[in-house]
Design brief:
mainly alpha, single chain, three-stranded mixed β-sheet, about 65% helix
């Protein structure tokens, strides 16, 4: 059987970690390859890891054809959606895939506008554009804030930090914070392990909080507290006034008594 590996398609989905690959290998050795590999003509589009393990250990496998695609972009979108539907995909991986999907859909839209479709070519229904961060978050089943953090990680994180968040050693939130450090400091934080990365993220947040200017109180926001303070001051003034009146009355009586005595 002639099976072709397209490197672009294989690189579209992040490789398994060493532990994940080992677990899959154990499963295939114990139970065989139960799920068929999916081909587009002779190109493998689903099951790259299973195919590699089956070839290494001479494990029998089946294949199934999916010929509904009109272009490699259609194949990539199908691969991404297929992977997003799996339960064992981490939040970070889902975000990365959704961002890749956004780029592919945007490129498809440009091609559709610039080049008329071939009437004889098969094609899937056009995918709705992921025009906003909310659309991307919905596709990934994440929050818009998580998508923003993943974008920061993709732009600024070192490979070591990316690997740490992919492996689940550090959260997306903390990784996005650590990614603001210079590369050497990122590498040092990752080398220090989970606690060191968490400490680095904590220190950055504290620095940002201390540098942030104090917010001016909104007009009317503290009226209740100010009114209570004024009432307390007025009550104190009234007490002092009453005390002064009492002292004044006592002095008048003493003066009158002295006058009588003289």
């Amino acid at each position: 059987m002639n099976i072709t590996i397209n490197e672009v398609l294989r690189a579209l989905i992040d490789p398994l970690t060493a532990n994940e690959f080992a677990a899959l290998e154990r499963s295939l050795l114990a139970e065989g390859c139960r799920d068929a590999l999916v081909l587009w003509n002779d190109v493998l589009i689903d099951g790259h890891n299973r195919y590699a393990i089956c070839r290494q250990h001479d494990i029998a496998f089946k294949t199934v054809q999916n010929t509904s695609f009109g272009s490699i972009d259609d194949v990539m979108l199908w691969m991404i959606d297929n992977h997003l539907a799996r339960r064992n995909v981490s939040d970070f991986q889902r975000g990365v895939l959704a961002l890749r999907k956004k780029d592919i859909v945007a490129a498809q839209s440009v091609q559709t506008v610039s080049k008329p479709a071939d009437a004889g070519a098969a094609s899937l229904a056009p995918t709705a554009p992921l025009s906003s961060r909310e659309d991307i978050a919905k596709a990934a089943r994440l929050s818009s804030n998580q998508i923003s953090q993943i974008e920061k990680i993709q732009k600024a994180a070192t490979p070591e930090l990316v690997q740490a968040v992919r492996a689940g050693t550090i959260s997306i939130n903390a990784a996005a914070t650590v990614a603001s450090l210079p590369e050497a400091e990122q590498v040092a934080a990752v080398a220090g392990g989970k606690k060191q990365m968490q400490q680095a993220a904590k220190e950055i947040r504290e620095q940002r909080a201390s540098a942030r200017p104090a917010k001016e109180p909104k007009e009317g926001a503290d009226e209740g507290g100010e009114l209570a303070q004024l009432k307390a001051e007025l009550a104190l003034f009234k007490e002092r006034n009453a005390a002064l009146k009492a002292e004044n009355a006592e002095l008048n009586l003493r003066i009158a008594a002295l006058i009588d005595a003289s």
